[in-house]
Amino acid sequence: MPKGKTLQSEIGGYLSTLLRTHFGKGPTSTYVTVARPFIVIHLRGFLAPTERILVEQKEWNRSRHIFIG
Which among 14, 16, 31, 61 could disulfide-bond with 42, CB atoms 3.0 to 4.6 Å apart, if both were Cys? Predict the structure, then answer.
């Protein structure tokens, strides 16, 4: 871990980069909380507009099959 960076910022940065690499876009913000033995990650702004509409229509399970395969 680079000097001056917290565990939370390292995890958040890595996860944002990983999602951007694999999905073509990353979240607008990533919040990470570490409270051993748990790590809680909150992603904001990760859904595409089409996915957001399906989620609002309670079709979130369908959206997973369409977009993830």
Answer: 31
